[in-house]
Specification:
heterodimer; A: mainly beta; Neuraminidase; 6-stranded mixed sheet; 4-stranded antiparallel sheet; 2 helices; 48% strand; globular; B: mainly alpha; Growth Hormone, Chain: A; transmembrane helix (chain B); membrane (chain B); MFS_dom (chain B)
Chain lengths: 332, 420
């Protein structure tokens, strides 16, 4: 093996470089060719009606509850939500940056806010006035490499922007709490457009917090409640409940009754890592990924009975545009 | 299976020869190792740059799942480093061990494709990648010390670290280029990264040579017990102790960048640029600092580096503000890396017996890495109790204490025990 001359080795290195470069370039070209065909633009509206808003193939789409017909818009959104004619869309600004777009009922851009990190959750208050979002921020955590979250709220009426909840005064079980490791995610608004619920994680625990936007305060209500979603009647919170309090074991979709603080696990047996959305006071929709990784939207009764039903294939980030539920179609 | 070298490395005895302080003293082997590191770092940083995007947006993993994977990622290296170092010495196969390490990491890039959406699969693949890194680092540094005359070690490590960090600097750019060219396909990034990593292995096989020991004695296998006695030698013990103390006083990069970001209310979009700024400073300063270390003494440059760290910590909540503060802090932080990372290895080389060189290097690197881990936890606790300003000043004070300890450990006995 010592026979190889310097020249011979340089030739081998050059050949290897060429072959490897050709392989990489070839794969890149094949991958580029597989790029999904741009979605045809259709007229999509967020005005209230018996329809389901989803993100499908990374595009905002609306599914008619009666006919099941899907209308896909040209607007790219990885997370969507809408209420009372106000839409929220988290979309890529560049391959490595995202932004929040506030939409009116005809998908016209009302406001664009650059987002730190990767989109995770978004919600609009029932009145359409408040918009909230959560992103994952890399490198923001002191234990190297860990992810942290950043949650912001926009008041579309006054234009007031709360870029992060981290400046709010936190009380845990009535005691003031200050720590470097606080993270918030998954805001859901109450009817008064001031109070909201969210998840607070600190010291390895995850709490349900009740926030007051005007007072800039947050107080914990209970533990192990993530990604809360307030029912239309304001009495219950749907959320993901970490199995045995340990998120690495997965999450069970559950409902918390705010009056009794009783938790009811729902009929979905799979681990659900999503912020649930109420379709009406009795039904909850959520995204579930199959083993192939493709997202599907399911619904399940909010009282723990029944069984999950496939609501929309190849879709995620569900939100109803209608106070009239999608039940009719599910039962037909 | 050895391949002949392209040029004789300067490993001839240097006694009696005039000290040459020219760049020529850096052997072809060091450049070859530098080229392998450069190429491999392009490959690995490509993946690091897109992995969060891939896991969270491509696979829709939750931060929790990402955290679990990341824990595996960092935890997997420490012990393996020691095992790899010992095996390299035992079988006198530093190049082979480094090659296995580089090879595992290369294959792991394809493993990311094969793992698909399975969190367990991805975790295993990332663990394998880190395993490869753990296996290769100490043999590589041992090879650098073995192909460089003692008086040129600072320069050799300086040049190597410069090439290494240049690769790390290019990696994210290449990844973004591939993402743009491939229509956002993460698969294309992984395949390209694999091809680049294979090229690194090819370069290693072709151009890096292991050291043939001229000694007449038949190879006596290194025993585990012998490896344990390494710490019985005073210089090794002192160096390992100093490395651990300094590691214990050093807080993680994440903290420093986070504090800078908070202090300056930087838009988080700019956040990654803090790391880029630091590596740019590191890249530019690594070779000059290495040369300086050979010229004025490695311990002095090491201490200078930690002094730069003290200043950087103090600047985090100091009188300066705005861009001057950012640039100065990142510059000092890069200077700290440039004056300490390779220089510590240059210090370690000569005090370690040749047959246990890899094990010794692995021991010092592992000790320092574990100390970092402890310091991060301690700093997190200090932050929680006293707030970031006080915590960063405590960290600065801790570094000062570690510097004083280092002076006593390394500088004073320098004449009798350590080469300049």
């Amino acid at each position: 093996m010592t026979a190889l001359s310097t020249r011979g080795r340089i030739v081998i290195a050059a050949l290897a470089t060429v072959v490897l470069a050709a392989g990489a370039v070839g794969y890149i070209r094949i991958a580029a060719a597989k790029e999904p065909v741009p979605v045809a633009s259709s007229h999509v509206t967020l005005s209230p009606g018996p329809r389901l808003l989803v993100s499908t193939g990374r595009h905002l789409a609306v599914i008619d509850s009666g006919t099941g017909v899907r209308t896909v818009s040209a607007l790219e959104c990885v997370r969507v939500y809408a209420a009372a004619g106000t839409g929220s869309c988290l979309r890529p600004q560049s391959p490595w940056a995202y932004e929040l777009v506030v939409l009116d009922a005809d998908l016209r851009e009302q406001r664009v806010i650059p987002l730190p990190g990767l989109p995770n959750r978004t919600r609009v208050s029932a009145s359409g006035r408040m918009v909230a979002w959560t992103t994952f921020v890399g490198g923001d955590s002191y234990n190297s490499g860990g992810f942290s979250t950043r949650t912001g709220i926009l008041d579309t009426r006054t234009g007031a922007l709360t870029s992060t909840l981290e400046g709010f005064a936190v009380t845990i079980d009535g005691r003031p709490h200050r720590a470097a490791d606080v993270n918030f995610w998954g805001v859901t608004f109450t009817a008064d457009d001031n109070r909201f619920y969210a998840t607070l994680a600190t010291g390895g625990k995850r709490y349900l917090v009740e926030g007051d936007l005007a007072a800039r305060t947050l107080r914990t209500l209970t533990e192990n409640v993530e990604c809360p979603s307030l029912s239309p009647d304001g009495t219950r919170i749907a959320f993901k409940h970490a199995v045995d309090g340990d998120p690495t074991k997965g999450w069970r979709l559950s409902v918390l009754d705010l009056a009794s603080m009783r938790v009811t696990p729902l009929a979905e047996p799979a681990s659900v890592d999503d912020q649930p959305a109420w379709l009406d006071d009795a039904t909850i929709a959520y995204t579930l990924r199959g083993s192939s990784g493709d997202p599907n939207v399911f619904s399940v009764p909010a009282d723990g009975s029944g069984a999950p039903t496939l609501l929309a294939a190849d879709a995620e980030s569900p939100a109803t545009l209608s106070p009239t539920p999608l039940q009719d179609r599910r039962n037909s | 299976m050895y391949l002949s070298t392209i040029s004789r490395p300067t490993t001839e005895p240097t006694e009696g020869q005039p000290r040459r302080r020219r760049l020529i003293a850096i052997s072809a082997n060091v450049f070859a190792l530098g080229a392998v590191s450069l190429v491999t770092d392009i490959s690995s940083e490509m993946v690091s740059a897109v992995l969060p995007l891939y896991l969270v947006l491509g696979l829709q993993l939750s931060p929790m799942a990402y955290g679990v994977i990341d824990g595996v990622y960092t935890g997997a290296t420490a012990v393996l480093r020691l095992v790899g170092g010992y095996l390299a010495d035992r079988f006198r196969g530093r190049k082979v061990m480094a090659g296995i390490g580089y090879g595992i990491s290369a294959v792991a890039k394809l493993g990311l494709l094969a793992a698909g959406r399975s969190v367990t699969g991805i975790g295993l693949v990332i663990a394998a990648d880190r395993m490869g890194k753990g296996l290769r680092t100490a043999p590589r540094d041992a090879l650098i010390t073995l192909s460089t005359p003692p008086e040129a070690l600072g320069r050799a490590f300086g040049v190597h670290r410069m090439m290494d960090s240049f690769g790390a600097f290019l990696g994210p750019l290449v990844a973004l280029g591939v993402l743009a060219a491939a229509g956002g396909s993460y698969d294309a990034v992984f395949v390209t990264s694999f091809c680049v990593a294979v090229l690194g292995v090819v370069l290693l096989v072709l151009f890096v040579r292991d050291r043939h020991d001229p000694g007449p004695s038949p190879v006596r296998a290194v025993r585990p017990r012998e490896a344990l006695t390494l710490l019985h030698t005073r210089p090794v013990r002192r160096l390992a102790l100093a490395a651990c103390l300094l590691g214990l006083a050093t807080i993680g990069d994440g903290f420093v960048f986070l504090l800078l970001q908070r202090r300056e209310e930087l838009s988080i979009v700019w956040f990654p640029l803090l790391a880029v700024g630091t590596s740019l400073a590191y890249l530019l300063l690594a070779a000059p600092m290495g040369a300086l270390a050979d010229l004025v003494g490695r311990v002095r440059v090491l201490i200078g580096g930690y002094t730069a760290l003290v200043l950087a910590y103090l600047l985090l909540f100091g009188p300066l503000g705005g861009w001057p503060m950012l640039v100065l802090t990142l510059g000092l932080y890069g200077l700290f890396y440039a004056a300490t990372d390779g220089v510590l290895m240059a210090l370690a080389g000569p005090v370690l017996p040749e047959r246990l060189r890899t094990t010794g290097i692995a021991l010092i690197q592992t000790g320092q890495a574990l100390a970092y881990l402890v310091s991060s936890v301690l700093f997190g606790a200090a932050w929680q109790v006293w707030g970031p300003a006080v915590a960063s000043r405590i960290a600065a004070a801790a570094v000062v204490l570690a510097i004083i300890a280092t002076v006593f450990l390394l500088l004073r006995p320098a004449a009798e025990e350590l080469p300049a």
